[in-house]
């Protein structure tokens, strides 16, 4: 009997059963769909209702101001707002995939609302042409819209996330002839087209055009077959004729047309073949058309809803009130003033169980449970009949339970599955548990207070993640949290959204009390981002609350930037330095640097060693002037002096610092400043003297370059300066440098000797050696002559060497072995030098000549 009562509600369309269970009795009051524009979201989403300003309606104890009201699918009011936008008449509205209400008015302006009837800024326009020509019709799809203007032009937004309108190609003849207007539009979504771009189907007269961004092409759906083509002439024409209404199937492969002569024609978009051709009783176009899954098409006139399938007679449903058809992936929701119904094809598993006279294994299993409950032996008989197909029967009962909206029937089917599972050894045991888990979630969201009547197929297509996202957007946080816990999903998104919503709604709650409430829930989820909640609190003007929240954020990388954004620079600097993350410390330093006066900035970083060192390291390379101010403010005068000294050296590397350059003057002044600063500290007396002498040397070198007109002095050492002066025969300048820098006589003799040897002025060298007894002896003269490869000149000074070892080595260096041996023999070094010479000269040809003298000496 139960099977009979269930199947009695079905309607047969050729060989397929359809059912239309009532999901909700609508809870709204005084809502007449015929007086309003209505937008219903897919997947059991919200319903937006606003009075239709294109109709003259009678007001019943209501304000003349139009209100946009948003209900859930059970008619429970979620939010409302007064509609007071300019731009002309409301042309159309629809819900996007992310449940944003898109409303388009006559001048092409787009107003967007969230589910709480809050306007989303900024408003967007379809463009100048739409503003000038006015929008007359718009067609929405999941995440886009196409608008038709009075001038016959088409404009499209293909993605509501980017909101970038663009113009489509012109339809031939439409823009030239003002009297020619499209009779209907349809959209083929981008994911179903070959090009990946949206295609708009436009019916104009006898033609149907496919329009994209580049071109508009006329298409034919009833071309003659190959064998009949020779019988057709060029005027074959479109047999379908003018089209009054059309819609594209959910998978984009079929197009349903309602023609001028009352025919319903379904054709393939690719094959161009007619799949359905049914003649209606009336040629009056239907108010609405919709696909019911992929199996049939619904057409609605006043009080008559007709369903047409591929074969057989149509099915009629009669209503005494207006209805709205809401297409879904597996059926159509039918919304009326008083109820919400779901028209769908009866699933195969349900049909096999409840079809009248069914003897399928699933039906027998369901019947066996009924006999078992009545303690009848017939239960055992049914089980024996289906023992070989018991797994199949259990699977059918589970699948049928998933497709049911009635909880009692779900329970009965699941009990039947569990009953059969007890006698089946090769069935997956977790299938019943998995279906029970899914049905618990679905039954929870189907509750009228939540009002999301998802079928199991819609739920799988939508995914639990998106469902939870929609629940939290509707502020059903408790249910979203329980579902997340039940399904083992991450609770962080739910709790964070709740916390942000709580802050927004608790404007009058004291910060301390609100913090306590928030922490009580935020602590339920480990690793949750307190910084994100604190950011929202700051955006809501609760800066103190934000500072209190961010104290609980364990991750410095999220904590520090937020502290900076809410003006807590001191705390941010402390947290950054404690973390040891140099990138974070630099972030805080640069932020404070820009926001605070210099002295205040210096005081903040002075007490933080890491921050101070990082700032100094950066400023040494990029901001030396600012670093000087820092050192001066902190009393580190010697550091300023070092910077001035370095700056002077950097000037010397400048290619502009050449002969006669004005940069030499600033360099000297910098050195003098550095010297003065060094002199103010007792610990840097050496640096002070060195800087002073460096400045003096630079001044002398600059004068030398000016007088000699040769840029060869600056930045050379004192030794090089003296040597260069002697080479240039400027002995007076060399003597001045010697005097100024108190160069010792020994160094002076070495420098002058080698300088005279460099210019090969042997006469001057000899004269210099006779001026007085050299304090260095004659070794510098010998070395200079030997280095210049002048043996004759060297022989003038070698005999004058008082040290016999040096004399012997000198003779050896110029190849005079006999003289070297004589000197070595006279040296009082225990024969060490003589032995070294023997080893040295034994490898040369001269060894034979030296053998006898060596032997004699030894």
Automatic annotation (TrEMBL):
Q: Does the keyword Transcription regulation apply?
A: no
- Residue limits of the Vps16 N-terminal domain? 8-430
Q: Which GO terms describe its molecular function?
A: actin binding
Q: Which domain of life, per UniProt?
A: Eukaryota
Tell me the ranges covered by the Vps16 C-terminal domain, including all copies.
Answer: 528-835
Q: What is its main location?
A: membrane
Membrane topology type: Peripheral membrane protein
Membrane in keyword set: yes
GO BP term (any one): pollen tube growth
- Annotated keywords: Membrane, Vacuole
Q: Where in the cell is it found?
A: Vacuole membrane
One Gene Ontology cellular component = lysosomal membrane
Function of this protein?
A: Required for vacuole biogenesis and vacuole enlargment in dividing and expanding cells. Involved in the docking or fusion of prevacuolar vesicles.
Q: Which family does it belong to?
A: Belongs to the VPS16 family.
The protein, known as: Protein VACUOLELESS1
């Amino acid at each position: 009997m139960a099977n009979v009562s269930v199947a009695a509600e079905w309607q047969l369309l050729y060989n397929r059963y359809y059912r239309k269970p009532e999901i909700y009795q609508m809870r709204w009051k005084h809502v007449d769909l015929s007086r309003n524009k209505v937008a219903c979201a897919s997947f059991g989403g919200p319903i937006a209702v606003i009075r239709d300003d294109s109709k003259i309606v009678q007001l019943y104890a209501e304000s003349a101001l139009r209100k946009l009201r948003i209900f859930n699918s059970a008619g429970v009011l979620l939010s409302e707002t007064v509609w007071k936008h300019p731009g002309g008449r409301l042309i159309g509205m629809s819900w996007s995939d992310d449940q944003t209400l898109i409303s388009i008015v006559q001048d092409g302006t787009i107003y967007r609302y969230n589910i709480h009837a809050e306007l989303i800024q900024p408003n967007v326009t379809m463009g100048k042409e739409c503003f000038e020509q006015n929008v007359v019709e718009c067609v929405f799809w999941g995440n886009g819209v196409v608008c038709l203007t009075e001038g016959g032009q088409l404009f499209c937004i293909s993605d509501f996330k980017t909101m970038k309108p663009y113009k489509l190609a012109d339809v031939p003849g439409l823009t030239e002839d003002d009297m020619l207007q499209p009779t209907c539009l349809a959209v083929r979504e981008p994911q179903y087209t070959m090009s990946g771009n949206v295609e708009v189907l436009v019916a104009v007269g006898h033609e149907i055009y496919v329009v994209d961004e580049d071109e508009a092409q006329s298409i034919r759906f009833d071309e003659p077959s190959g064998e009949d083509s020779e019988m057709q002439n060029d005027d074959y024409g479109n047999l379908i004729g003018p089209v009054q209404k059309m819609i594209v199937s959910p998978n984009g492969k079929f197009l349903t047309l309602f023609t001028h002569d009352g025919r319903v024609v379904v054709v393939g978009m690719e094959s161009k073949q007619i799949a359905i051709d049914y003649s209606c009783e009336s040629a009056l176009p239907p108010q609405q058309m919709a696909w019911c899954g992929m199996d049939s098409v619904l057409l609605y006139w006043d009080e008559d809803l007709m369903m047409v399938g591929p074969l057989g007679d149509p099915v009629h449903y009669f209503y005494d009130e207006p209805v709205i058809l809401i297409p879904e992936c597996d059926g159509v929701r039918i919304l009326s003033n008083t109820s919400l119904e779901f028209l769908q094809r009866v699933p195969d598993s349900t049909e096999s169980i409840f079809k009248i006279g069914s003897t399928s294994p699933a039906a027998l299993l369901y019947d066996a449970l009924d006999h078992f409950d009545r303690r009848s032996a017939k239960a055992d008989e049914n089980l024996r009949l289906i023992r070989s197909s018991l797994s199949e029967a259990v699977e059918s009962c589970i699948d049928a339970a998933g497709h049911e909206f009635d909880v009692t029937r779900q329970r009965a089917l699941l009990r039947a599955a569990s009953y059969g599972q007890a006698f089946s050894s090769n069935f997956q045991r977790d299938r019943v548990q998995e279906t029970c888990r899914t049905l618990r979630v679905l039954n929870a969201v189907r509750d009228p207070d939540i009002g999301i009547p998802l079928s199991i197929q819609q739920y799988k297509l939508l995914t639990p993640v998106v469902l939870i996202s929609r629940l939290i957007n509707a502020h059903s946080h408790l249910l979203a949290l329980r579902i997340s816990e039940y399904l083992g999903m991450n609770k962080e998104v739910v709790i964070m959204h709740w916390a942000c919503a709580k802050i927004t709604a608790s404007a009058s709650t004291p910060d301390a009390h609100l913090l306590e409430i928030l922490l009580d829930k935020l602590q339920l989820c480990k690793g949750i981002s307190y910084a994100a909640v604190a950011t929202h609190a700051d955006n809501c003007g609760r800066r103190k609350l934000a500072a209190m929240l961010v104290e609980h954020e364990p991750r410095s990388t999220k904590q520090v930037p937020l502290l900076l954004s809410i003006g807590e620079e001191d705390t941010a600097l402390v947290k950054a330095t404690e973390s040891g993350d140099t990138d974070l410390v630099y972030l805080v330093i640069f932020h404070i640097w820009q926001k605070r006066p210099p002295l205040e900035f210096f005081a903040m970083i002075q007490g933080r060693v890491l921050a101070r060192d990082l700032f100094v390291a950066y400023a040494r390379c990029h901001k030396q002037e600012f670093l000087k101010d820092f050192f001066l403010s902190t009393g580190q005068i010697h550091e300023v002096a070092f910077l001035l000294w370095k700056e002077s050296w950097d000037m010397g590397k400048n290619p502009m610092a050449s002969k006669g350059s004005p940069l030499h003057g600033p360099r000297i002044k910098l050195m003098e400043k550095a010297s003065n600063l060094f002199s103010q500290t007792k610990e840097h007396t050496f640096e002070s003297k060195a800087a002073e002498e460096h400045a003096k040397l630079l001044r002398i070198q600059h004068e030398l370059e000016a007088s000699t007109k040769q840029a060869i002095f600056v930045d050379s050492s004192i030794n090089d300066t003296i040597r260069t002066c002697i080479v240039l025969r400027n002995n007076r300048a060399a003597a001045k440098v010697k005097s100024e820098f108190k160069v010792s006589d020994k160094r002076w003799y070495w420098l002058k000797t080698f300088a005279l040897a460099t210019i090969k002025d042997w006469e001057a060298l000899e004269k210099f050696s006779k001026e007085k007894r050299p304090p260095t002896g004659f070794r510098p003269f010998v070395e200079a002559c030997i280095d210049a490869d002048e043996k004759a000149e060297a022989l003038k000074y070698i005999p004058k060497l008082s040290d016999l070892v040096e004399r012997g080595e000198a003779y050896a260096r110029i190849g005079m072995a006999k003289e070297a041996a004589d000197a070595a023999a006279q040296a009082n070094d225990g024969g060490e030098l003589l032995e070294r010479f023997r080893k040295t000269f034994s490898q040369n040809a001269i060894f034979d000549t030296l053998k006898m003298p060596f032997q004699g000496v030894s």
